[in-house]
Amino acid sequence: MRTTRILALAAVGVLGGALAACGGDSADDTAAAGSAGGPITVKASDTTCEVAKNAVDAGTSVFTITNGGNKVTEFYVYAPGDRVMGEVENIAPGLSRELHVELPSGTYETACKPGMIGKGIRAALTVSGSAAPLTDDAKLADATASYSRYVKSQTGALLPKTEEFVAAVKAGDVDKAKALFPIARTYWERIEPVAEIFGDLDPKIDGREEVIEEGMEFTGFHRLEKDLWAAKPDVSKDGPIADQLLTDVKEIVAKANAEKLSPLQLANGAKGLLDEVATGKITGEEDRYSHTDLWDFNANVEGSKAAIASLRPVLEERDPALVKTLDTEFANVDTTLTKYREGDGWKLHNKLTEADLKGLSDAINALAEPISKVAAVVSKK
Amino acid sequence: MSDSSLSRRRAIALAGVGVAGVTGAAAIGSALVKGSAGDTTPHPVEGAVAFTGEHQAGIVTPAQDRLHFVAFDVITKDRERLIGLLKDWTAAAARMTAGRDAGEIGAVGGVPEAPPDDTGEALGLPPSGLTITVGFGPTLFRDATGKDRFGLAAKRPPALDDLPHFPGDVLDDSLSGGDLCVQACANDPQVAVHAIRNLARIGMGVVSVRWSQLGFGRTSSTSTTQTTARNLFGFKDGTANLKLEETDLLREHLWVQPGDGPDWMTGGSYLVSRKIRMIVETWDRSSLAEQEMIVGRQKGTGAPLGKSGEFEEPDLEAKGADGEPLLALRSHVRLAHPTTNGGARLLRRGYNFVDGSDGLGRLDAGLFFIAFQRDPRKQFVPIQRSLSRQDEMNEYLKPVSLGLFACPPGVSGPDDFWGRALFI
């Protein structure tokens, strides 16, 4: 799983002419706003997701999402196979956020995810207009652009959630910090392969106690986890650790957003995320104090799915049978994982039986084997 | 495809004396050794054993020295995926038993970005007498709730009845049973492990490993050309075993005959696996006389008590000077003898195991018993019942696992696959 860095350095098949990421929710979006009419309002609650339009013209669409519920929500525009065209994370109750997204003609789905979990509340969205079919190279470029958007949206939520977590730790609010711990980590775990490119930051942020080398201090998420879940929780001396975590996360967010990933890295990242699940989350080693491994597990799978979804147009072209297999096996992982949902979260790892874990392991293996074939398909000339 | 590595393995395979010619074509089938698995030529230690034949190889094949046995649960509900797996397994097994890689591309022949379709640890090793034998467990036909999982329930042979509970058995459910089993035997442990590892990998998403067992030092001979090996009690084991040269006896006791049950099993055989932990520390403290009395044989020669040659028939009537039977009433040999069990005989093919040590510093060791037979209801079950109830040896034994599998007949050629007749 540490190959990401090597591949990154080797810059295998990195595309020249980086495509500017379109979409995202950046304010400097200069696309012809309004080409598809005014903003489309989205009224989100804990149980509903009312999208004002179900058909728009090709071009840039602007959605204004207002969260009228009590749970934090997310809003997505998906192309087939849950390929993320645009998304807004971490919309707190009472807030409104905007999404600018460029949509070629085709069929899409919108989704609100109250509680940030599950498939979300979906609706069809038809985009009409003419668009020339993309060339193979353009599809690859599009894949990396699409994944960059994903990384940006995740880091955009990772930062504020880490800030909230750190603030709770420093305020000595143990219960609040415990509740925020798996949530903040979700955004981290979704883009873990990207984080691992930055080899020195990764262990500082996400290192477990046993990976700490001599002369290094045990810091980051898991150090705070250990203190929060101790028999007598005590984070009174953890101020510097919490500050350092936020500093490190800020640095990695800046680096991740500047990083240009190659299609091959996406493919290897999708596999890498499942390796993370198979080696760390299934065993309960990752979150050994809090036992919140299934939050990480689910986030790793979502991240893997996002990377594959970015590559989908290329894979459809080159190996449709593999796409079908991946769809089947992703669905199987979701079905298996859903058994362990509890409210807006997950069952704790120490409440899972050996048989539960074996079922999860089988589902991950069934998905990881075909996913390991994606890299070769992507790199085929 | 690049097959420089394959050809190296194949060259060694071909060097084996008396091995049927292996053609160089890569396609499955055309590269299979044509011959009968009942071929009575002992295979050379490093050579290839014919994969195709009337019966599956690995049953009467002269017992190799090493075992890797695995039981799988089928995790798909899709009958077609299960059939697809059996086809893929058959093709991979045909390649591996001929000393070639598991996949068509091989361990090092593919593109750098793709994971190899063979795991690579057998590169450069000869076929090593590898045989791969497949069996179907009762739960493949109906699950514990009685559900017909793959439309096979009507084809479940009566002889594949769930085994009864044997007195004294404390079985670990996670080490027992299984929907499918694969027995890989070879003269090199790395070759046997390589075979199982690659089949398990091919099966991901369709099957899941339920349990597996490594074994060494065959405890039975299945050919008159072999000497009788010893188990971890230090005694020769399998002296009175069925042997491949006894073709009439094999018809009577080993191979399923037409009319025995559903046609798809004709030419097949039933496999019972039983992992028996031996408490060797206490056994080693018992006197030689006690050990010999319990087994019913001399430790050195393997001869039945009161006889001088290993292969002499035990005399169940003989009395010692004290008027007591020479073969104790609760001795292993007496209780397992055909005359005690209505003539029932088995083809045993077990292996020793040592799985490290337990927390008490005792060797976690024993016998991984494997027996093939025509009908377990008439063979293994009565024999084991009498052993479980009376065998003095039980004091030193702890059975922990039990499995029963229907091993279909052999694969006839490139268009055939394991269990095809069951699924059509």
From TrEMBL, chain A:
It is found in: Periplasm. The keyword Nuclease does not apply. InterPro entries: EfeM/EfeO_iron_uptake, EfeO_Cupredoxin, Imelysin-like, Imelysin-like_EfeO/Algp7, Imelysin_sf, Iron_uptake_EfeM/EfeO. Residues 143-373 form the Imelysin-like domain. Residues 1-20 form the signal peptide. GO terms for cellular component: periplasmic space. Residues 35-127 form the EfeO-type cupredoxin-like domain. It comes from the Bacteria. Keywords: Signal. Belongs to the EfeM/EfeO family. This is Peptidase M75, Imelysin. The lineage of its organism: Bacteria, Bacillati, Actinomycetota, Actinomycetes, Micromonosporales.
UniProtKB/TrEMBL annotation, chain B:
Its cofactor is heme b. Keywords: Heme, Iron, Lyase, Metal-binding, Oxidoreductase, Peroxidase, Signal. One of its GO terms (cellular component) is cytosol. Belongs to the DyP-type peroxidase family. Transmembrane segments: none annotated. It comes from Actinoplanes friuliensis DSM 7358. This is Deferrochelatase. Binds 1 heme b (iron(II)-protoporphyrin IX) group non-covalently per subunit. One of its GO terms (biological process) is iron import into cell. It is found in: Cell envelope. It is an enzyme of class 1 (oxidoreductase). Pfam families: Dyp_perox_C (PF20628), Dyp_perox_N (PF04261). Residues 56-216 form the Dyp-type peroxidase N-terminal domain.
